[in-house]
Here is the input.
Amino acid sequence: MKKTSMVDVTPKPVVFREASAEGLLRLRPSTVRRIRRGEVEKGDPLEVARLAGILAAKNTSQFVALCHPLPLTHVDVAVDIADGRTVRVVSTVRAEAKTGVEMEALVAAATALLNVWDMVKKYEKDRGGQYPTAEILSLRVKKKFKGEP
Amino acid sequence: MKKTSMVDVTPKPVVFREASAEGLLRLRPSTVRRIRRGEVEKGDPLEVARLAGILAAKNTSQFVALCHPLPLTHVDVAVDIADGRTVRVVSTVRAEAKTGVEMEALVAAATALLNVWDMVKKYEKDRGGQYPTAEILSLRVKKKFKGEP
Amino acid sequence: MKKTSMVDVTPKPVVFREASAEGLLRLRPSTVRRIRRGEVEKGDPLEVARLAGILAAKNTSQFVALCHPLPLTHVDVAVDIADGRTVRVVSTVRAEAKTGVEMEALVAAATALLNVWDMVKKYEKDRGGQYPTAEILSLRVKKKFKGEP
Amino acid sequence: MKKTSMVDVTPKPVVFREASAEGLLRLRPSTVRRIRRGEVEKGDPLEVARLAGILAAKNTSQFVALCHPLPLTHVDVAVDIADGRTVRVVSTVRAEAKTGVEMEALVAAATALLNVWDMVKKYEKDRGGQYPTAEILSLRVKKKFKGEP
Amino acid sequence: MKKTSMVDVTPKPVVFREASAEGLLRLRPSTVRRIRRGEVEKGDPLEVARLAGILAAKNTSQFVALCHPLPLTHVDVAVDIADGRTVRVVSTVRAEAKTGVEMEALVAAATALLNVWDMVKKYEKDRGGQYPTAEILSLRVKKKFKGEP
Amino acid sequence: MKKTSMVDVTPKPVVFREASAEGLLRLRPSTVRRIRRGEVEKGDPLEVARLAGILAAKNTSQFVALCHPLPLTHVDVAVDIADGRTVRVVSTVRAEAKTGVEMEALVAAATALLNVWDMVKKYEKDRGGQYPTAEILSLRVKKKFKGEP
Here is the structure.
């Protein structure tokens, strides 16, 4: 087994980097209606998700163990209702850096969805206190780009 | 639209809480073989994932915006190869607290999978530098429990 | 000069604690109108302020050096437009703890106001890039309470 | 209402940035005398304030939600007794960066004053445990500079 | 090889815990004289060390991977000049918790010594920029206690 | 006494920096045998130490108070059994920066050793719950380098 180690990016050039990630969270239709109507008691899940996603992206190197700390120049987290039972997040991260920002984009999207979940979890519990419906169904890198912006 | 606010858990009793979450990450069969054979250059993704998941669970209230800080008494993150193209994580979190620990379990599982992804991303890129296969296919709360341990 | 030291709260009983703090940020009337009309390019400053204030309160012991880490059970951050040139924040923090939560309330209020500032700073600069108007005019503990909730 | 988003600073040039902020904390004359004489039980509030302000400036992007992480090259936090009832802090922050450092300077000054407050709060309480005097009376950007150092 | 896992402390009783740790940092006699005379350009290393040690103790569970987050009720970090070439730190940590606080005491002492080192490193370099003298010579748990305070 | 202040590195050039640090932790021979045989209940201390050391290096500026935040390009933490009673860690840190990375290397090494200690502390306690053997015997900068890589 190899020893854990960070990739040495010292010799790599600083170039423009961009990555976007997409995530989908399935919820009950009644929960999605609540979000749409602004009836979630804890506030607006889409707004909280955007902000929490941005903050998390900036902290990526603290919880993805082998990520390098990167000076992000842009983080955008778009959260919307994809259909009657799905919240979708699309994150975009930019930096001029020696390594890519796809982990930052994934962290932003994952954190955004987990914040939505937290805000609506009250409406997703069944009688036994379980979550039969809520599930992140997909989280993936949409696109990665390196080169001139 | 409601204003963002934390639930006031002051009047709730301190009781034993447990939650487990499960997540699945799809990878290329060749990447899964590398993990199995200990041929991942950055180290052992399953081991790193376990540790990163545990650390993240302890920080849940810093990136799930409306979560209360909880004195976790146990975090377990099991990571294994589910089948020829899937890594699975099952996290378990315990606390004696006024509110549940399902968000902590989800955060642990999500972070564990993102750490696996980071460690093997080199083997998942296609010629254009994109990730056609890698995807978190599921992340959900397996079980939530409240009461006597 | 005394040596820096944390107060030893070990012998103190765990009781209900509540504190609220209030802060005022003066801005240009034109900026306050922008906030009211939802015309701030970076988003809704009041919403961002609420969330950032809640998050900061949970981290108080990391930047108020001699504060004890406390298991907060509630944080509320209300942000509104007090008058044509003033944004007001009122924070409320609760915990069952051995020491008071007034520093947490102050941290929440200060952070909320600084986030408003950051979001509107573009509209507050004069031609020389200076801020002739923006100023936190007051930040104080409104009320502190200890005992039965 | 606009969606929350970070400003994209990717295309901006890296230039020298400097900002200073000033804050004033009103205290009881008896408390200010204690500080002057080195009779504060928890230690020297001015010294703790300096250090806590420096540390906070480095963490600005974690609690000002839409701030970019910046590689600060200098943080100075001067704390002194302005008059018989006022502690004053003046912070100065420098960086070579794509965006200004005024939020970092404000965060340093605010945190410094909150640390002074925390250290002397024992002497500021009235019989009812309230704080009739302690108040941050002003916090503002003194000067912002961009260009050749 | 066993899988990484946190000890499950759920069933353990909450009792008073105390631990103290001691560390020794060897420096050049000329550096120790500078500290004594208040001639260190970056400030007073002993004062900075005290504060940094206290802050680090509160963050122990974030960098000792398998430590439980504990509600510390007291942290004391005493730093002095032990002899003409040695700085000594003795940390004491208290909590009412399900597990001991010796790691918190060690973290406080290690961080205090590293902060002293950072502040005087300018005076410890030889012509080649190396550190022939500076060395932490000892860091150990002095005493651990569990039971009635 | 001088006031606490960060060194202003603004005018310094960005150059390649490397530093390595070495630390030694003495343990009971029986504990070292356990590590060798993979019989430590909490997992593999050497693997956890590597990862925790890497993570801590990235956070250096948060707990070494006057350190500048640096964009590390490489962190390597090698942990092995030096002899029948000693665990050794050697850390290497690289960056292109205005100031050196020796504090980052020391932080990585110290954190790695403290994580080993935490994982084996169960086997190091005597009947009275004390640690007669476990001790960090040395922590020092092995080598510092500045210039062309």
